[in-house]
Amino acid sequence: MSTSSKKTLTCTLSEAGERRLLRAALASEFLAEVLAIPAVNGMRAVSAEGAAAMLACIAEQLDGVVKETSTMKGERHEHN
Predict the structure, then answer these.
(1) Which residues have C-beta within 8 Å of that of residue 61, sequence separation ≥ 6?
(2) Total-model pTM
């Protein structure tokens, strides 16, 4: 595809999308810290169910960001 025929797609987040993305980033960073501390200190185990629940929450936040962005662009993305 030549440079002149390429489309430039812009993506703008709404305020709600920005908040969701920031929340997901903070939760991901927190989870990484929580999972790293026991391994470094040889301390207690971390609940696999709790970690899975946290990851599911992060996934929901990121899905919301995609939906917010798609809505602003006038598109609709179906989630399989």
Answers:
(1) 20, 21, 23, 24, 27
(2) 0.62
